[in-house]
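Q: Hi! First time doing this. I have a protein sequence and I read that you can turn it into a structure. Is that right? Here it is:
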Amino acid sequence: NLQMKNIDRIINHPLFIMSMKKIHDYEIDRVFCCHGIEHSLDVARVAYITNLEQNLGFQKEMIYAAALLHDIGRWRQYEKNIPHEEAGAALAADILEDTAFSKEAIGQILAAIGSHREKMEMETDRFAYLLYESDKKSRTCWLCEAQDTCYWPETQKNRTVSN
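A: Yes, that's right. Below is the predicted 3D structure, encoded as structure tokens:
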């Protein structure tokens, strides 16, 4: 079992815990996709499987860090109307300071968080692309009770497990 001490530091960080609670509280009655720990772990798992299947070579800890932190700014979006990818990158920077990730790894994670809502090509930034695609693939749109009123473009909705 590979140790993921940086992930333990993230999930036990007071700012992470507070952010997850605020997101949960804001989304308690949300009918659309939620952005809690379950979603973040789904994104991490999809990304890690994709990483292995495609031999992308990214470290498991980096994948999990980016996935766990990618929506952390949602509560700032709800409170201050700050785009959650911008707010998330700022919050994640504070959390990642308390990990042992290198400055280069932190930069790569923050870039992926900051751009995870932008459609991009894999050649632009393979790590950011992995996070973007995994975020979309983690959703079960075909089961969603709110799919008819969802604002996502039809081209981004998952209609099968194999997307």
